Amino acid sequence: MVPRFAGIASFMRLPVVASPDGLDIALFGIPWDGGTTNRAGARHGPREIRSQSTLMRRVHHVSGTEPFSIARIADIGDLAVNPIDLMDGLRLIEEGVARIVKAGAIPLAAGGDHLTTLPVMRAVAKSRPVGMIHFDAHSDTNDRYFGDNLYTHGTPFRRAIEEGLLDPRRTVQIGIRGSIYEPGEHDWARQQGLRIIYMEEFVRRGPEDVMAEARSIVGSDATYVSFDIDCLDPSMAPGTGTPEIGGFTTREAQHMLRLLEGVNIVGADVVEVAPPFDVGGMTALAGATMMFELLTVIAARRK
Fold first, then answer.
1. CA 20 to 30 Å from 1, out of 33, 125, 214, 303?
2. Cα 268 from Cα 111, distance rounded (Å)
3. Smallest Cα–Cα separation from 272: which of 153, 160, 129, 112?
4. No. of H helices and E strands in the chain?
């Protein structure tokens, strides 16, 4: 009864509730980019993704899934963050997600920079390590930046492996590309057993073959899905802090996310949407659409 351009903007025009209690899937924002090392702005991502997500409709046109009728889903707002204290920001994010997990809901987050995934994982993987399917231009397994700074958006998955949150043998990264800081930058990750699929390999093999391998790597156990918007080519997603040319098309990304159906997803996120660098909201729209794709496969399995 209300046009999609009207009313309070929430993720996909869902009800806004104060608590995750009683939900199957909780959508929320993490307006924080304290781990950014270059172009800041991802703290504004959740608000703009919400605005663009009002363009989502009820039914997935390929699968026919209507996630809002088969699962209890709501927007629980933004987590509390500290924009000037990195460690306190990480603590607040972890505590916020822990409340979602305790309530029995699957967290689906809109970031925020990629460091936000670390505290989300601390909550999701508290009882056991998880596997991960990770779409990104960057491996984010570096050790430290600018001296001894261990916590940046380029280090979350190294920390997650060190903390026992992430099982590297059940982790696959897809779309990695671009120049690197030094030879052998990804050696540590590979030594841990992490599977890196560079963009060049993806182009040779195609999405079906790559996703078949990804599914075999994570198996049937608990899996986290992290989608960094910079995995997309900047011609389709310019609004991000670290763009890398030669990325996925939005169509390829949608296709890969649809091939996640049936995977045991216990948490997911879309990160690094930075509206200050966006053009016409196209990156935020891509982020909202990828959230809808993730929501659809999570809801289908939850049913």
1. 303
2. 11
3. 112
4. 10, 8
Q: What pLDDT is attached to residue 300?
A: 95
Q: Report CA torsion sign: 285, 303, 263, 124.
A: positive
pLDDT in tens, 111-154: 999 999 999 999 999 999 999 999 999 999 999 899 889 999 99
pLDDT band at 219 (very low <50, low <70, confident <90, very high): very high
Q: Assign residue 15 a region (left: φ > 0; alpha: ψ between -120 and 50; beta: otherwise).
A: beta
Please write down the HEC assignment for all residues of the chain. CCCCCCCCCCHHHCCECCCCCCCCEEEEEECCCCCCCCCCCHHHHHHHHHHHHCCCCCCCCCCCCCHHHHCCEEEEEECCCCCCCHHHHHHHHHHHHHHHHHCCCEEEEEECCHHHHHHHHHHHCCCCCEEEEEECCCCCCCCCECCCECCCCCCHHHHHHHCCCEEEEEEEEEEECCCCCCCCCCHHHHHCCCEEEEHHHHHHHCHHHHHHHHHHHHCCCCEEEEEEHHHECCCCCCCCCCCCCCCECHHHHHHHHHCCCCCCEEEEEEECCCHHHCCCCHHHHHHHHHHHHHHHHHHHHHC
**pTM, full prediction:** 0.97
Secondary structure element (H or E) that encloses residue 201, with its range:
helix 199-205
Whether 173 contacts 167, CB under 8 Å: no
Q: What is the mean pLDDT of residues 42-70?
A: 96
Number of Cβ within a 10 Å radius of residue 169: 12
Which domains are delineated in the chain? 11-302 (3.40.800.10)
Interhelix angle for 250-258 vs 282-302, to 10°? 10
